[in-house]
Amino acid sequence: MRLSEQPLADASLIKRRNRFVAEVRLADGSETIAHVPNTGRMGELMLPGAALRLSFNPAPNRKTDYTLLAVSYQDRWVCIDATMANRLAYEYFVSLPEINDLRREVTRGDSRFDLAGTFDGRPGAIEVKSVNLVVKCGGRACACFPDAPTARGRKHLRSLIDGVRAGYADGLCFVVQREDAVCVIPNEATDSEFAALLREGISAGLCVTALRCQVTRDEISITGELPVDAFASNKGMIKRI
């Protein structure tokens, strides 16, 4: 699918002003700001001078006319739009014959999940996580989540674990929005509690899936699944790629 239905533009990064705003230089040399739809640190991606792809969508209720969608890193495009992960996951799961009545943004109890439906006849929910960070860990290029401590992610995992223990067919899906990873591991060095909860969930029967994407200047598509090595540890052995 296209990175955006809105017109796309080239730019380069001047600096990331805060979690939600980046200062950018457009192809004509003019400078402006762009919304950053990702709260992760992305320290290895958001470097001054990095080539960017933006969408142009001016509107009266927006503070910026542009949204930052992708960053070029080591001659590869990385999609940093966290909302894209939900769209890709829906496209993938809705095509599977064992999944029916797939819906988006579904509330159960005090949690709101990205997807919900019936899985081989059992009701369940799926929480989707966008992954942009890849590190060298044990000689492998591993996609790593989270990029920053995530209280929200831990809350979702606890709710999914409770759901599995109550009989729901719950799952977690990592969408790796770059193509250079060979597996997904928890970022224990950044959020050890999330890593512990992920392992607890898998032991309880939580279904964990990871999807790899191919990203170009204009498009992104799922190319297949990646293995999830939830019991790998990256403590003391991280080298960001």
From TrEMBL:
InterPro entries: SfsA, SfsA_C, SfsA_N. Pfam families: SfsA, SfsA_N. One of its GO terms (molecular function) is DNA binding. It comes from the Bacteria. Residues 87-218 form the Sugar fermentation stimulation protein C-terminal domain. Belongs to the SfsA family. This is Sugar fermentation stimulation protein homolog. It comes from Pseudoramibacter alactolyticus ATCC 23263. Residues 14-80 form the SfsA N-terminal OB domain.
